Amino acid sequence: MIDAIIFDMDGTLVQTERLKAISYAKAVVELCPNCVTKDQVIEAFRKVVGRSRREVATFLVDEFDLGFEAIQRMAEFGVNTPWQALVRVRLNYYEAMLADPDIIKNNQWQHNVTVLNQARSIGCKVGLATMSRCKQTQRILDILDFRDRFDFVATRDDVEHGKPDPEIYKLVMDELDVRPEKTLALEDSPSGVLAAVNAGIHVVAVGTPFTTDHLLEADFIDNRWVVENPADLPHVLEQKITEIKR
User: Fold this and answer.
1) Rounded Cα distance, 158 and 150, in Å
2) How far apart are CA 125 and CA 107, in angstroms?
3) Residues 27 and 140 occupy one common structural domain
C-alpha cells in the first residue's frame, strides 16, 4: 500500500512550465530581437523542462549564441556569468506574471489537484518536491491556498543538486518518514521522473504539451505509467497502486 504521495509543482499542479517558457522566450528575444523568435525559444525550452534555473539558462545561452548579448547586461544586474544575466532579464517577465493571482489560479492542472485532495482525504502523507525557489513556491501556494495541503515542502533552495538527482525526493521521504517502496511520485517532466526513479520511488508521469513526447521516448519509465490524456489519470493510478500491492 502507498503511505505517501509526493507531487512536483511546476507542470504538475500548476502550468508554470508554460509561464516559464513564455518568460524565457521574452527574455531571449529582448537580448537578441533580430536573431530568434519566441516560438523557437519555447521549442528549445521543451528539451530542458524541469531542470534547474542554471541548466535551463545555460542551455538557452548556448543554443542561441547569446554570450555576447548577455555579457553586455551582466554589470546592469551585478552578476558574473551570462546565464545569470539571462535569468535576471527573464525574472522580470516571470515575476510580473506571478504578481497576477488570476494567472496562477487559471493555470492549475485540475486533474492532478484532484489527486492531491483525494490523497489528503484518505489520510495519505503528502509532500511537495519542486525545483522552483522557496520564494516563488510559497507565493504560488499562498495564491492557491495550498499551504496546509502538504506535510512537507522541499524547494530548490533546500538541496545541493537539482533533479534528475534524487536528493530532493530523499529529503522529502526522510521528513515524511516513509520508505521508497511505499511512496508514489506524480511528475510531469523526464528529469523529475528520473529523479524519483533514482530515489527508488514508484512514479506516474502526467504529460503536458511540453513533456509528453519526451516521456514516451524515455527508457526509464514504462509507457503504461505515462498519462497522455488527463481523463485516464484515475485509471492509471488505480492500476499502479494495484501493481504495488502485489
Assistant:
1) 16
2) 25
3) no
**Count of helices and strands (H, E) across the chain:** 12, 6
Express each pLDDT in 211-226 by its tens digit. 999 899 999 999 999 9
The length of the chain, given as a count of residues: 246
- Indicate the residue type of 246: R
What is the chain's alpha carbon radius of gyration, rounded to the nearest angstrom? Answer: 18
Our CA angle for 141, 147, 148, nearest 5°, is 155
Listing DSSP states for 167-193 in one string gives HHHHHHHHHHT--GGGEEEEE-SHHHH
pTM reported for the whole predicted model: 0.85
pLDDT, one tens digit per residue, over 17-27 is 889 999 999 99
Report residue 127: phi and psi, to 5°.
Answer: -125, 165
Residue with cell 542551455: 59
Which residue from 56, 65, 4, 78 is spatially nearest to 32, judged by alpha carbons?
65
Same domain, 157 and 126: yes
Question: What is the C-alpha separation between 215 and 102, in angstroms, rounded?
Answer: 30
User: Omega of the bond prior to 164 within 30 degrees of 0, cis?
Assistant: yes
- Count of Cβ atoms closer than 10 Å to residue 80 Cβ: 8
Asked whether residue 124 falls in the same domain as residue 186, the answer is: yes
